[in-house]
UniProtKB/TrEMBL annotation:
Its EC number is 1.14.13.83. GO terms for molecular function: 4 iron, 4 sulfur cluster binding; metal ion binding; precorrin-3B synthase activity. It comes from the Bacteria. PANTHER family: BLR3264 PROTEIN (PTHR32439:SF9), FERREDOXIN--NITRITE REDUCTASE, CHLOROPLASTIC (PTHR32439). The keyword Coiled coil does not apply. Residues 13-67 form the Nitrite/Sulfite reductase ferredoxin-like domain. The lineage of its organism: Bacteria, Pseudomonadati, Pseudomonadota, Alphaproteobacteria, Acetobacterales. Pfam families: NIR_SIR_ferr. It comes from Roseococcus suduntuyensis. The keyword Transmembrane does not apply. This is Precorrin-3B synthase. Residues 1-22 are annotated as: Disordered. Coiled coil: none annotated. Keywords: 4Fe-4S, Heme, Iron, Iron-sulfur, Metal-binding, Oxidoreductase.
Length: 363
């Protein structure tokens, strides 16, 4: 795999539980999600992740099952991860404009040789916007056209054809120079909450959370088959959107019995945890079961990051408190990232009491 590139079915990444392949966010039929879950079950270890940006990961693949996985994953599931649209593109009632045509033009015309993980966001606006997502290049729906952002700089507003030309020129320069200009979210707003009801031009969508982004194949199949939705899509915030559901209340109740998060106030939404050991070969500690026990301690407005190692893959930004797995125990970091300076070392058996004191002081 090219250094820094995202893992894919063609170039999966070795992890602690086998090979990992990632597919970009896509609005697909429930039947396609069932097929994807079958691929996870038959070619992998039956576990899937929805990432912080809404991508889907198949876990536990093996060299000898990659061909089977490729065969089972729906052929029309997008493979390219360069261009990302807002999750309810073309559907949201409050969308400023449909980002899909511009996104498709850019994806088709993108030059070869772009740096790994280069990202273009085409954001139609509305409640489930992409303002908090990092990108090299972003085009945001504006009343007069598309507002163009390059790195941390806004370049202006242009009509769709001009915006396409400007964006393509910037991508060509990135490919020529081999450099990225990524920036964090360019609006001083929090990431939108995907869990709950979202009004569409035709019906409603129901957003469901996955505990720490994880779901098993059987559970995903059960949800997809019962949803009655026109489509499902992974969304930023480790969530799944059921688009065009006939009975949102019934689906919400059913999803809760399957283990999905249906309440945005669920304390697990205030904790980020990577796969941890043994699922990740870099992790020095188990994370998710531990994070579940710690979640009730985290007050509203705070964020706890439980990271298996100092790389902090699940949350590269600062958190209110971070616990990081280290050879000598758990490192506690206050208002920082997993790779920042450790303020205190904790014995795992004492971590719950220590976190209770930390968050009592925070409150």
């Amino acid at each position: 795999m090219r250094r820094g590139a995202c893992p894919s079915l063609d170039t999966p990444m070795e992890t602690g539980d086998g090979l990992l392949a990632r597919l970009p966010p896509a609005t697909m039929s429930p039947a396609s999600w069932v097929a994807l879950a079958e691929a996870a079950r038959r070619a992998g270890n039956g576990l899937l992740d929805i990432t912080a940006r809404g991508s889907v990961q198949l876990r536990g693949l093996r060299a000898e099952t990659l061909d089977l996985a490729t065969e089972l994953v729906p052929a029309d599931w997008p493979r390219g991860a360069l261009v990302m649209t807002s999750p309810l593109a073309g559907e949201a009632l409050d969308e400023v404009r449909d980002p899909r045509p511009l996104a498709a033009r850019l994806a088709a015309a993108a030059p070869p040789g772009l740096p790994p993980k280069a990202t273009v966001l085409v954001d139609g606006g509305g409640a489930l916007h992409l303002a908090a997502e990092a990108a090299d290049l972003r085009l945001v729906a504006w009343s007069e056209g598309w507002r163009i952002g390059h790195g941390a700089e806004w370049l202006g507003v242009a009509g769709e054809d001009d915006a396409f030309v400007i964006a393509l020129d910037l991508l060509r320069a990135m490919a020529r120079d081999g450099t990225r200009v990524p920036a964090g979210g360019m609006a001083a707003v929090a990431a939108p909450e995907p869990i709950g009801l979202h009004r569409l031009r035709d019906g409603v969508a129901l957003g469901l959370g996955l505990p720490f982004g994880r779901v098993d194949a059987d559970t995903l199949i059960a949800l997809a088959e019962a949803s009655g939705a026109r489509a499902l899509r992974g969304a930023p915030g480790r969530a799944l959107l059921a688009i065009g559901v006939p009975d949102a209340d019934a689906l919400r109740r059913h999803a809760a019995t399957l283990g999905f998060i249906t309440d945005p106030a669920d304390p697990r939404r205030r904790v980020v945890a990577c796969p941890g050991a043994p699922g990740c070969a870099s992790a020095l500690t188990e994370t998710r079961a531990f994070a579940t026990t710690l979640a009730p301690l985290v007050p509203v407005g705070a964020l706890l990051h439980v990271s298996g190692c100092a790389k902090g893959c699940a949350h590269p930004r600062a958190a209110t408190r971070t616990l990081v797995g280290m050879a000598r125990g758990l490192g506690l970091i206050r208002r920082g990232r997993a790779g920042d300076t450790v303020a205190d070392m904790l014995d795992p058996q004492d971590a719950r009491a220590a976190l209770a004191r930390e968050f009592a002081a925070h409150a």
